[in-house]
Amino acid sequence: MSKNDTKTIMVVDPDEDFLSWADKHLRTPNTDVICINNSEVALDKYLEKHPDLLITELFVKPLQGMDLIKKVRLNDPNAQVILTTAFPPSSAVIEAMRLGAYDVLRKESLPYDLRPVVEEALKAGEEIKSTSKNAAEPTKVDGADETIIGRSSAMQSVFKMVGRASRGDAPVLITGESGAGKEIVAGAIHKFSKRSGSEFVTINCAAIPENLLESELFGHEKGAFTGAHSLRKGRFEQCDGGTLFLDEIGDMPIHTQSKILRTLQSGEFSRVGGNENLTADVRILAATNKDLEFCVKNGEFREDLFYRLNVVRVHIPPLRQRIEDIKLLAEFFLKRNAEQKKAPKLRLSSESIELLEAYNWPGNVRELENTLYRASLLSTADVLLPKDIPLGNLDSDNISTSQNLKSTIEEAINTLKKASGEKPLIPWLEIVFAKSSFLDHEKDLDLTAKFLGISATRLKELLEN
Prior knowledge:
Layout: E1 7-12, H1 16-26, E2 31-36, H2 39-49, E3 53-57, H3 65-75, E4 81-85, H4 90-98, E5 103-106, H5 110-131, H6 153-167, E6 172-175, H7 182-191, E7 200-204, H8 210-218, E8 219-220, E9 232-233, H9 235-238, E10 243-247, H10 254-266, E11 268-269, E12 278-279, E13 283-288, H11 292-297, H12 303-309, E14 312-315, H13 326-341, E15 347-348, H14 350-358, H15 364-378, E16 383-384, H16 396-403, H17 405-420, H18 425-440, H19 445-452, H20 456-463
Parallel strand pairs: 1-2, 1-3, 3-4, 4-5, 6-13, 6-14, 7-10, 10-13, 15-16
Antiparallel strand pairs: 8-9, 11-12
């Protein structure tokens, strides 16, 4: 690599020890590293040197990391930026991604993630330079409060997708189990988008009878049906210029799906009982707890509508897969309940936190919220003990099982090691499980691959072993 190919990385952080580590970790014969502990100095130096990559701490001073990103990208729309901090709040992750940051990384993951992400960001910067002169200036928004709560790596990925989705106007499909927070994510996408000053309208496709859903969406003319005593505008007209959130779209009747598809394709629609073609500038966000690909295969959902909606997908993991978020969410709900009751905030005992984290939460975040609401109403002290927390199906056997889960897993692993003999455990287990699942699904290759979450090609390879 010639000298002209040398890359320059600027690292901005108030911690001198971190700067020293970053310099050693990132410097190579072909990579120069500039370390600065003051963000105003860093901004001046950036505008002078124009490094290939900027890595900044969120809470650097005097300009915080988010302000540094804004100023840098205002002067250099193609700037490649990585934001780092210990526990980035959701609003910071979303805002950074919306402003065009390449990634947001938790500091605890940097020893593993920083180098590969840096290499990807540098490569992306080269590609941008070769294909584009300028990128559009990001839309300015005021600082937002915490929008979605979570510190887990799973939720950090959600925040990043929300930020990216907020940049444009494409349809978004939000998937996840009931109660996982799909409507909150939809609201966050709207809040951080250029449509934030316009209406955000929600309609639950599963809660409205089929014969009324079309009228609810598109409106109706006077006399269109019995009871239609006057003209009524539908949700599309009501949120012209804004965002329409179609919750539980997997339950939408096929007939209505075809009309939604037409509107997505042409921007036109007609009121029930009317002949006039109307238009509305509406961004569509849709959510479902169903497997739409499976519904398409079974003829329950239009394939063409699925592809129209699935331009950007945001999947929300269930609460049981992000245990480290449970305490954070619980504290938030208790604080909100206290504010609503105008009473002191209740505290959780350490045993109560362990109880909440051991529970499976089949109803996800919604169940956690309702559980703590009931506990707040019934509490007689300022500390919630395990006996004060009403959990659905968690009995003493469940608690015991959860507490002994580690030893159970260790026993299972030891048993599997013996069964696999000299073969590596994970590859052997993958083959055994694939063959067992193939038989369980009556040797249907596609269904088995879908169940396992792998491609049909990969499944064939496993079955041949």
